Amino acid sequence: MIKLQRGMLWALVMVLTLAFLPGVPVKAAEEPVIRVKLKNYLGNKSQITIIPDVTYTTNLANKKLEANQTYTLKVSGSNIVVLKGSNEVGKASQVEAKPMKGNGPLSINGRKYLGSFTFTIESGKYVRPINAIGLEEYLKGVVPSEMPALWHIEALKAQAVAARTYAMGYIGKIVDDTQSYQVYGGYAWHEKSTKAVEATEGQVITYGGTPIGAGAVFSSSNGGKTESNTNAWGTAALPYLTIKDDPFDPQSEWSFSIKKKQIDIAKLDLTNADEWWAAIKEAEQSKVLTNMKAWLRANGYANKDIKITAVPALSLHSKTSGGRVSKGSIAIEFLIREQGKALARRLELVNVPASKIRAIVGPSLMKSYFVDTVDTAANTIKVSGKGYGHGVGLSQYGAKNAAEAGKTYKDILTFYYEKTSVATLYKSAPEQPEPVEPAPVPTPAPAKDMRAPVIKDVKTSYDSKTKQVKLSFVINEKAKVTVYVKDQNGKILTYLVNGSQKQAGLHSTVWSVSNIKNEKYTFAIIAVDSSNNRSSTAVPFTLTKSVPKDTTAPVIKNTKTSFDSKTNKIFLRYEINEAAKVAVYVKDSKGKILTYLAKNAQKQAGVQWASLNASKISSGKYTFVITVTDASNNKRSAEASYTLTKPNR
Question: How is this protein annotated for GO cellular component (predicted)?
Fold first, then answer.
């Protein structure tokens, strides 16, 4: 669960530098507002969909965003255009939206957020929302995103106070909703974590009477020993972030291994890689190799086809006073394929920061710098360690165990942030009720409805003619109904119904799947009655559309032959428009087949190469015959000729 590793090194340096600056003495104040750039769940989108639950005012002339209506915001030149259906509502260089009453919420691409919004243009092409929200409601979206919401309430309280303190270091600035600051899930609250936030309202960690702000860092597990900020990031020592044994941390262990020898290239013809490239595999198909290839492609070998042939050396050393490795070395030998050839390359890094080795191996495998052993004696390199994350400040798993052992959240925070105390910085002002006329003696209020709506008789069916999935269900009382569809990874694809008022009885909705692939999906149905009682159900559905038979053969185009006098080879270049199995053979002027350059070789769409060694053939006309067969067994052939003229001897 490492939602807690704090982004890039420079960001961490700034974080802890700011934390060391003088703060404001603790006193009663208003609840601050924090501004959050939404990117973690949204990604980079040039067009987004928003659905407000209440009416929002905007900075567009006399225009409002009406409740329960769907709007599209998209980048057009230097403006963001707001559309309702196909009709333009307005446009501006940035669009501001503020709820007329209450605090929302507003849905952005299926995820709900409270507060006000400024929609800006980022990098000239993306719509980037900035959510302005009160700190307490922000924390209700942070705590369950950073710590499992079903953990002990005292651990959740400790997380809430640490998260609030950290956020206080960024009031007046803009943070984002990723691990670079704190993961913020919007209006995705959990009852238990919300209770922890409310129970600690306004409370922050202080040192010498001053809030420690962005010094309130935390990680998943420290492996049994805390680390200092100086060792972790090279910043000036903070007196409350010290090194010591942690009896509460579970010392969770991790390990990974990799074989030193992956491919024996001694018997491979590197000048004719197309003949064997698809068939030759590394000795192991592991995550560590996948991570190494991804790192290589991001560091000088973009879009290259890579095979790791050996990892002859890997070391991690130079431990800090907190027991973490700070330096490392690695050697990686690999092949890249270019124009039918395999080019041997070697990467060797010696005594580089351990963070670079971790980036190559992958932080999900090398979970921390608390490394116990690096065993290189045999044919396999084995690395093992403890913890998950940087180990500075609060350990989340340590907080969990401490709470279960009877420690309070203040005990937990005092242990992880030495010589600090918890103080209340502000309290939210109570809402003032509107004045009312005196009323006669009231009649007893009716008993409160505590029963959630019943959702039953849920059925799904697929209509192959309309290419729609029909979902029907029955609810037993009037309720606001939401229906959405998730893919097998849990990602929400679309909302079929969004907070629509429905009467008791049978209801149905349809999902158009003409552009949806066959796999497992889940329909989620949520019903909320007038007393705010909520029920939900999830219904799995496997989409199995019939796929039209492919009767179109692959296309072979742009065939070209050439002769390279340096290598004494005839080269064949051609393109195919889809993945296919390829056979290439060469025949002489009498039609006799001389050799096969490829047999049943699986190729992806794009440019292909083959070559013929001309050293043992005489002058004359030679024909390359290319046959490609796709997955539906459609076949096509093409020919390309070359006339070889050798000098007389």
Answer: outer membrane-bounded periplasmic space
